[in-house]
Amino acid sequence: MPSSRRRVKRRRRSSSKRELRYSRSKSLRKRSAHLMANCPGSEILQLFTKRVGCGTFGCTYEATPETRAAVRQEFGRDDVLLKIIFDVEGEEPPSQQFKLAKRMDDLGVGPAVLTDKLIKCRDLRTREWRWAYVIQRLGMSASNYLRSVGRERGKADMHALWPKIKARYERMNDAGWTHNDIHYGNVLVQVNSAGRAVDAFLIDFDRAEKYTRKTDPKFVRQSDEDWQALYDMFGV
Predict the structure, then answer these.
(1) Which helix (H) or strand (E) holds 79?
(2) Staple partner for 136: which of 6, 27, 112, 232, CB 3.0–4.6 Å?
């Protein structure tokens, strides 16, 4: 009985921490609506002023028609996004998140990272530091793809992509990493000119963990959870 009470208390404390992080993240997302205004020192940020979306750990921005030519000149392409990272208490610092995104790029698991180093910028209005990097825009989230083509066709298309997403997650696992947050919003579906799904990638590695031994019980458990999430999504 005492151990049961302790578990309840631990869960409550953990829940309180998650709520605090979510509250902090919600505030950051709200203030990020006009994040690029009065932000000196990083001209790259000024090229991405249209917010695409936000999550617990950051926001993404895209170029506008007015800045697309400048983006193409800077990166040799315009199918790119700017990712702003929130420095959320209790999570990996932005520098580590950037390194992890680069590692997942190297493994071919996630989008290509097109900036050599983390962009740092201090917002003059809020006096807060922001961190950002530029990534390849591969497609749309799996959830948006299902909505756009209909669940029946979308699930069939995703089923056909199983070998590709399986190979990518195996590379991540073989390198000793677990994702820990696989869901429809964290899988990117790449579509061709006809609007059909042709590939799938993982994104948002903010909760990923590295293990030195693949036999570690925690690694095995979390890897199994990731695989189950992928099975559920791709209908295998």
Answers:
(1) none
(2) 112
Cα dihedral across residues 84, 120, 36, 136: positive or negative: negative
Residue (of 91, 101, 72) closest to 203 by Cα position:
101
Indicate the SS3 state at residue 47: helix
pTM: 0.79
Distance between CA 63 and CA 52 in Å, rounded?
Answer: 10
DSSP result, 169-215 = HHHHHHTTEE-S--SGGGEEEEE-TTS-EEEEEE---TT-EE-S-TT
Mean pLDDT value of segment 90-100? 85
Task: Give the pairing type, strands 58-62 and 80-85.
Answer: antiparallel
Q: Is the dihedral of CA 182, 184, 185, 186 positive or negative?
A: positive
Based on the number of CB atoms within 10 Å of its own CB, is 134 exposed (0-12), middle (13-18) or buried (19 or more)? buried
Sole residue written with tokens 């070998």: 163
Q: Is 35 helix (H, G, I), strand (E, B) or coil?
A: coil
Helices (H), the chain: 2-31, 68-75, 94-107, 142-149, 151-160, 162-174, 217-234
* Residues 50-75, mean pLDDT to the nearest whole number: 89
Structure tokens at 117: 């180093």
pLDDT digit string, tens, across residues 210-236 = 999 999 999 999 999 999 999 999 986
- Return d(Cα 68, Cα 163) in angstroms, integer: 34
